[in-house]
Amino acid sequence: IYLVTVTSQAVGGSTETLCAQIHEPKELLSIVVTLRTDDRNLTILQQGSIRKDFYKCVPFK
Fold first, then answer.
1. Chain mean position to CA 54
2. For the whole model, what pTM was predicted?
């Protein structure tokens, strides 16, 4: 089971928060969350080797 949440309408220049949760993974997992815009890609969260419950919130602009 996984869940990723983020503000539905991010406002440029303000700090937003992304939260990701993985519950009871059945196998070794990795997660990458990338925000894509017209002119660039911003990797907000990258985590490898997830073996057990995982929860992390990351601020981004």
1. 11
2. 0.76
